[in-house]
């Protein structure tokens, strides 16, 4: 393929990964709804399999042909190249059927029975379930480390540590981790081997945060959210600095069958072209709405990066390029007030998920985090009165009026 010039992500997100010359000069990528690919010869087929199974390395510059869509297909490849071009520091990417399959396929590739995963709460409820309730059955311990206790935990698990896992900002409270500091802590505790630092960057996306530039080895996305951006698909993605990691993860993906199918990959690539526009507008909308939320008497606390103080404010300034469009509000009056607020919304819709063009609101305690233990909920800051908002691209004054009316209802006005 023609080598593109070094382009800004706002440009590369539009067309990277797609070459019209390979597709009858179509101006935009076509869909390849194809399960199996023809080989030019029996010898070529044998060679493709040897490369796919890691028995032979492809020669530099060799274009190894496609085999079967559970292993790879053009739409996944095109999306992966587009994503890679916008993720600062990334040299390879992989697409998955969901955020959860991106997480599990990556974690299973990087972990062996008898090893330990260290992570910090909060994490998304589904991730919490896999870490806490599924991995122990495979003899993998996932230990939630309290903030401020990382040095001891890393020292205690220097020998058996498979990886360190963070969500930053975390779902739903937006708690942030200083990734460069954490990288240095991990390296101090394990000086003789490189322990992978895996980061779920779903909330800020490649537009507003680049974990690979701060010491992360693998960045995971629920592509269902901002990357897809229209609440019309379920998908996941991984980006890495070291292509060797993606090669290993793609091998696991091929055998588990967790690659996203052609139509979804095509939709994701289409969405990449508007990623900057959407996320920038959404973040601007949220920044306009946050002062209104913070000033309302029904609101006890607003979780939003521009309102952070102390260490969290320092991390935001250092690590993020914008605050994004995820907001969590803690309402006076607990669950009853939260339910009154949610039921009074007219423009913002009541649904789980986030990152789409439409604004959504949810009550994490009784939905996405409902499986967590009381201790986990407390450690994660998920309270009875907490409502998570995902701000969309609508006209902000309409959202302001809707939120104001619902807060009045929550406060009993
Ligand atoms: C931060 C985060 N990571 C991962 C996931 C899982 O993604 P998916 O629903 O696409 O499997 C979610 C889903 O809400 C999420 O919020």
Question: Gist?
Answer:
The protein is an alpha/beta fold and 413 residues long.
Shape type: globular
CATH architecture of the largest domain: 3-Layer(aba) Sandwich
The main pleated sheet reads as: 7 strands, mixed
Mean pLDDT: 95
**Rg calculated over all Cα atoms:** 22 Å
Distance between the amino and carboxyl termini: 63 Å
Poorly predicted runs: none
Bound molecules: pyridoxal-5'-phosphate
| Beta content | 5-15%
User: Any idea of the CATH topology of the largest domain?
Assistant: Aspartate Aminotransferase, domain 2
Q: Tell me the number of strands.
A: 12
**Level-1 CATH class name of the largest domain:** Alpha Beta
């Amino acid at each position: 393929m023609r080598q593109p010039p070094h382009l800004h992500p706002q440009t590369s997100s539009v067309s990277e990964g797609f070459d019209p010359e390979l597709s009858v000069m179509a101006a935009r990528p076509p869909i390849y709804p194809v399960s199996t690919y023809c080989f030019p010869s029996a010898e070529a087929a044998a060679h493709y399999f040897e490369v796919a199974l890691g028995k032979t390395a492809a020669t530099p510059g060799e274009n190894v042909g496609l085999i079967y869509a559970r292993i790879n297909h053009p739409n996944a490849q095109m999306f992966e190249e587009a994503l890679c071009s916008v993720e600062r520091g990334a040299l390879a990417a992989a697409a998955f059927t969901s955020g959860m399959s991106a997480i599990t396929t990556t974690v299973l590739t990087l972990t062996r029975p008898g090893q330990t995963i260290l992570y910090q709460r909060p994490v998304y409820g589904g991730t919490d379930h896999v870490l806490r309730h599924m991995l122990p059955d495979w003899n993998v311990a996932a230990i939630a480390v309290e903030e401020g206790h990382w040095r001891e935990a890393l020292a205690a698990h220097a020998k058996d540590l498979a990886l360190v896992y963070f969500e930053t900002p975390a779902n739903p409270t937006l708690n942030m981790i200083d990734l460069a500091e954490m990288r240095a802590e991990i390296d101090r505790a394990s000086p003789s081997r490189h322990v992978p630092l895996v980061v779920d960057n779903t909330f800020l996306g490649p537009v507003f945060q680049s974990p690979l530039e701060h010491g992360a080895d693998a960045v995971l996305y629920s592509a269902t959210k901002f990357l897809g951006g229209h609440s019309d698909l379920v998908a996941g993605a991984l980006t890495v600095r070291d292509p060797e990691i993606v090669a290993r993860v793609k091998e696991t993906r091929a055998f588990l069958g967790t690659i996203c199918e052609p139509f979804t990959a095509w939709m994701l690539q289409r969405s990449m072209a508007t990623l900057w526009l959407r996320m920038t507008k959404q973040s601007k909308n949220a920044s306009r709405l946050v002062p209104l939320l913070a000033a309302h008497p029904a609101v006890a606390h607003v979780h939003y990066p521009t309102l952070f103080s102390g260490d969290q404010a320092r991390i935001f300034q250092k690590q993020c390029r914008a605050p994004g469009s995820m907001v969590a509000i803690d309402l006076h009056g607990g669950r009853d007030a939260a339910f009154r607020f949610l039921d009074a919304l007219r423009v913002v819709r009541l649904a789980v998920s986030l990152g789409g063009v439409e604004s959504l609101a949810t009550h994490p305690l009784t939905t996405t985090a409902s499986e967590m233990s009381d201790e986990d909920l407390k450690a994660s800051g998920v309270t009875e009165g907490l409502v998570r908002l995902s701000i969309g691209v609508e006209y902000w004054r309409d959202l302001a009026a809707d939120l104001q009316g619902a807060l009045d209802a929550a406060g009993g006005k």
